[in-house]
Amino acid sequence: MADPHAEKHPNESAETAVERNHGGTKRRHPKNKTLPLFNHNGHRVTTGIHPDGESGRRGIHPIEFLQICFRSSAPWSKYVNFLWPFVPAAIAIHFAAPDEHLWIFILNYIAMVPAANLIGFGGEELARKLPKVFGVLIETTLGSVVEIVLFMVLITREETVNFDPIQIIQAAILGSILANLLLCMGMCFFIGGLKREEQTFHKAISETGNGLILVAGMALVMPSAFIASLRNSPDYSNQDFTDESLRISRATAIILLLAYVVYVWYQMRSHHGLYDEVLESDEHRDADRHHDLAKPKLTLTECIVALAIALTCVSLIAVFLVQEIHYVVHELHVKDAFVGLILVPVVEKAAEHLTAIDEAYDNQMNFALAHVLGACVQTALLNTPLVVFVGWGLGKDMSLDFETFHAVIIILAILVVGNFLRDQKSDYLEGFLCVVVYIIIAICSFYYPDPKKGEAESATTGEAAAAEAAHRLMRF
């Protein structure tokens, strides 16, 4: 039977046609490897582009660009795109009705989800065109852009009596790790386990990621433990350790950034072959791989355009959102801990969570864990040092002196998740338990008092009690 593709390429030989239909290997790679001339869809592969990400087009095609972006990478991601009308509405209301603080906060909070989702999708499309490990690293880094923008906008805000941006950043750092470890990973285990008795993943992904998170978590809370132990000591309880806290935090940030460089080198250079093998094996376990390969892809130019649009929208929305946090904390009496630990991380990680959950649903648990644990590692080893350095440059007291409540729950969460990852297996029960723990933390943080407010109230109460005692003494 004649090859149907032969009619489309009348001048090529039968041997070339067969090679084309099976991913022909006529172009030589500099490292003695062969690269296909055509991919699975019959598209000629561009030099430097991975066959799975070849779109078969060049430049920008507006209609196809909008159609592909709307379809997104998963059904639930596609439904998120229906929220795009909130983006112009959120930007417009900031200028048209600047006194409507609650509506500005609500609209920008919702608008952050589709904008962040476009960053996730643009990063995923770009990652398809790159080598597997490098692509996952780039995709995870782009997913952290929203977090970095929010941190940088918050660190530039001035502190007031009822609003401390540094406390919110500190809570958001740990809240981001918690959202990934408990909420996102829990949803991955739960959604992926609904169709299967259990799912398995490679120890190279789970053990390396979990070990890094444990070390990073210990490093993050060590300054808090140091300061807390001295404050509780009778010999040092009256001393101020702000300067020591800053020095320890900045030194820790330098070490964490160095650890991130070593982590990237480990993934990209010394052990990239192991990660390539694990992730490629995971691709073949994809339940709907044939559908993903057949989907239309964005061109490299369209990926850059999508990311530029998304980053612009995210930056504007982040600025407007942060400006209204003061109103939420002061007027609505929402605690700093709840804003930083729950509200900010949930919206900033929405797109990344959807991607990881889709991969778990398709039985790609190694990819899902690579995204979840990779995002945690980036928050702890990259984003946290960056905000400490920026605060250092701006003269802000951005330290890693976390609240004891926050430090305790992050260590407990890391231990819980580490116990679930130890056997390289997961099921829906483990996922449900992770989500339950996250909900309990959210409830506790909703009622956790702001430290400065608590101190002010205690001082006021103490002064009132002293005045009442003096008044009674005078009556005698």
TrEMBL record:
Composition bias, Basic residues: 23-32
**Could you tell me where this protein is found in the cell?**
Endomembrane system; Vacuole membrane
Identify the residues that the record assigns to the Sodium/calcium exchanger membrane region domain, covering every copy: 102-268, 304-445
Q: Where are the transmembrane segments?
A: 79-96, 102-121, 133-156, 168-191, 211-228, 248-266, 298-321, 368-392, 404-421, 428-448
| Keywords on record | Antiport, Calcium, Calcium transport, Ion transport, Membrane, Transmembrane, Transmembrane helix, Transport, Vacuole
Could you tell me the membrane topology recorded for this protein?
A: Multi-pass membrane protein
Residue span of region Disordered: 1-43
Q: What is this protein called?
A: Vacuolar calcium ion transporter
Q: Which family does it belong to?
A: Belongs to the Ca(2+):cation antiporter (CaCA) (TC 2.A.19) family.
Q: Tell me which NCBIfam families the record gives.
A: cax (TIGR00378)
Q: Which domain of life is it from?
A: Eukaryota
Composition bias (Basic and acidic residues) maps to 1-22
Identify the stretch annotated as signal peptide in this record.
Answer: none
Q: Which PANTHER family match?
A: VACUOLAR CALCIUM ION TRANSPORTER
> What is the role of this chain?
Has a role in promoting intracellular calcium ion sequestration via the exchange of calcium ions for hydrogen ions across the vacuolar membrane. Involved also in manganese ion homeostasis via its uptake into the vacuole.
The family database entries (InterPro entries) matched by this protein are listed as: CaH_exchang, CAX-like, NaCa_Exmemb, NCX_ion-bd_dom_sf
